[in-house]
Amino acid sequence: QKLMHSNIIQGRLGAWVDNSKEAASSEPFSCWGLFDPSKSADKDDKQKERAKSTLHQPLSKNDVVTCWFWKSLSPQLGFMPYNHRNRLSCLTELDAGNYNSPIVYTPSDYKTPQMIQKSLRNARRVGATSILKRSRIPLWTWDTSYSFSLNWLSLSRGVSLVLGEDTSQVLHMPFFSENDLSVLPSSSSFINLFAAGPNRVGVHVHGTEAVMSVIESSGIVKETIAKYGF
Q1: pTM above 0.85?
Q2: Contact by Cβ (8 Å): 51, 59
Q3: Going by C-beta distance under 8 Å and a sequence separation of 6 or more, which residues neighbour residue 7?
Q4: How far is it, in rounded angstroms, from Cα 180 to Cα 2?
Q5: What's the Cα-to-Cα distance from 72 to each of 50, 68, 147, 212, 216, rounded to whole Å?
Q6: For 7-27, how does the pLDDT look when each residue is reduced to its tens digit (9 = 90+)?
Q7: How many CB atoms are closer than 10 A to CB 185?
Q8: CB 29, CB 230: distance < 8 Å
């Protein structure tokens, strides 16, 4: 999922970023850490979550964390890959290939975790300014702020590596090369949920120092594993 987005961004925006002094004025950072997703919801969101869970499917960690992350940063556009496997009758886990397409969100589409959850159910954003008028995607400019949300945690089946009788898995992390991350414009950010180990939720966050300060001051971080500047 991440490689697909990196290739698209590099192909379309890489040359502009390399030649833009303004874009380079805010150095990007990547940070890996262990998170407690329950702390990303404020009291009102938790009350809404409890009320909704009695009538609807319980919210996932991805629903809560994505809503919290985007509301904290207020990007003009949010993107989330939608996996079509087992959602289309012609695609299953036995089919090789990449069958993802992005759902695009505007600020009115990520107001609550429930809206994120519903969008994944219907494969489209659910915000509306009225009953008959859905949210509109703003015109793209070089100054448009946007953010990606990736959910590799959903790909985990809750198993750990079997390495031998005296060896156990301590930590699992997604791998990105410096080239993958350094070409991302300073107006972009992303958050990636992953399984750091049995019953351990890890998150990879990429963005400017301003993005990192929001994350580090939120109280959601249990442990910072690594942080790099580009």
Answers
A1: no
A2: no
A3: none
A4: 9
A5: 22, 6, 11, 11, 12
A6: 222 223 233 233 333 333 356
A7: 21
A8: yes
Helix axes 113-122, 43-53, angle to 10 degrees: 40
Q: What is the tens place of the pLDDT at every residue in 151-176?
A: 988 877 766 677 777 877 788 888 77
* Cβ–Cβ < 8 Å for 165, 157: no
Distances, alpha carbon 27 to alpha carbons 134, 208, 209, in Å: 36, 6, 7
Looking only at the bridges linking them, the beta strands covering 77-83 and 221-229 are unpaired
Concatenating the DSSP letter of every residue in the chain gives -HHHHHHHHHHHHHHHHHT-TTGGGS-EEEEEEEE-GGGGS-HHHHHHHHHHHTTSPPPPHHHHHHHHHHHHH--SEEEEEEE-TTTSTT--TTS-S--EEEEEE-GGGSSSHHHHHHHHHHTS---EEETTEE--PPPP-TT--EEEEEEGGGG--S------TT-----------HHHHHTS-TTEEEEEEEEEETTEEEEEEEEEHHHHHHHHTSS-EEEEEEEEE-
Query: In whole angstroms, how far apart are CA 183 and each of 10, 29, 55, 142, 173?
Result: 6, 12, 44, 15, 21
Q: Which of 26, 46, 18, 5 is nearest to 187 (CA)?
A: 26
Provide the residue type at 85 as one letter. R
Which tokens hold the place of 71?
């509301």
Which residue has tokens 């750091």? Answer: 196
**Dihedral of CA 88/93/95/100: which sign?**
positive
